[in-house]
């Protein structure tokens, strides 16, 4: 049994993992999900939310060596947590996620992609502390192959996303890189171009790169397949030896 902590992406919350958590439990794992500060049901004021606060929330939710799964934007918080306390992290799993480069912000990495499918989908608030996704564009961008009830759930629960963490670089990622790292590409992704995911994943050994034929939201589109892939990663020799 592995301890697995699931970290959501921008504007989402722990709610997006509602199908994956029981699937992982059925495979014998202790799986949990949290709302990052300022997301989901967490009421931290957006102006107070930082990348460091994300990392501290993740570490506070760990009770021993933990596999962190970060979706999309969640690649930055899980890396920050591993950089701060690598001994608490059994492995890092990047699920169609940004794999941080030292000195680059998430916003910079997004703009460096080969195309910009999210252009025009952002709605920045008057204080410029949060953004939301256009609810009319979100289904096609994120959930085109997902069950209608999950699309409805997401449209009802997508929340304002604090901007500051996405404009904060990680100056150094060496301690995080000392942990076993894996990447799960989503080959039908319309939010982070699959080719760009392949570029980011190329930093890892080929045997640690996996793929799912889904949209940006495999937790809705293929929860059982995703759980099996995380289970496979949990049994990887590098994880068990770490």
UniProtKB/TrEMBL annotation:
List the InterPro entries hit by this protein, alphabetically. AB_hydrolase_1 (IPR000073), AB_hydrolase_fold (IPR029058), MES/HNL (IPR045889)
Q: Which organism is it from?
A: Paragemmobacter ruber
Recorded GO molecular functions are: hydrolase activity
Q: Does the keyword Hydrolase apply?
A: yes
Q: What is this protein called?
A: Alpha/beta fold hydrolase
The record's keywords, sorted A to Z, are: Hydrolase
Upper lineage: Bacteria, Pseudomonadati, Pseudomonadota, Alphaproteobacteria, Rhodobacterales
Cited SUPFAM superfamilies: alpha/beta-Hydrolases
Q: Which domain of life is it from?
A: Bacteria
Q: Domain AB hydrolase-1 spans what residues?
A: 4-228
Instruction: Tell me any Pfam family this protein matches.
Output: Abhydrolase_6
């Amino acid at each position: 049994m592995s301890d697995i902590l699931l970290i959501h992406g921008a504007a989402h919350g722990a709610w997006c993992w509602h199908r994956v958590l029981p699937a992982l439990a059925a495979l014998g794992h202790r799986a949990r999900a949290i709302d990052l500060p300022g997301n989901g049901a967490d009421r931290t004021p957006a102006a107070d939310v930082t990348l460091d606060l994300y990392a501290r929330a993740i570490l506070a939710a760990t009770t021993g060596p933990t596999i962190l799964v970060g979706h999309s934007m969640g690649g930055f918080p899980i890396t920050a947590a591993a950089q701060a306390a690598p001994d608490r992290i059994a492995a890092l799993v990047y699920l169609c996620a940004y794999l941080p480069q030292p000195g680059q912000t998430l916003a910079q990495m997004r703009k460096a992609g080969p195309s910009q499918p999210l252009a025009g989908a952002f709605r920045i608030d008057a204080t410029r502390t949060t953004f939301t996704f256009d609810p009319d564009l979100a289904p096609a961008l994120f959930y085109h192959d997902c069950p209608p009830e999950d699309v409805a759930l997401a449209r009802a629960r997508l929340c304002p996303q604090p901007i500051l963490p996405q404009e904060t670089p990680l100056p150094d990622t060496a301690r995080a890189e000392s942990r076993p790292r894996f990447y799960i590409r989503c080959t039908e992704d319309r939010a982070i171009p699959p080719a760009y995911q392949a570029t980011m994943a190329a930093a890892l050994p080929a045997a640690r790169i996996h793929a799912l034929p889904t949209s940006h939201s495999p937790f809705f589109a293929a929860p059982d397949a995703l759980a099996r892939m995380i289970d496979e990663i949990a049994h990887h020799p590098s994880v068990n030896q770490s």
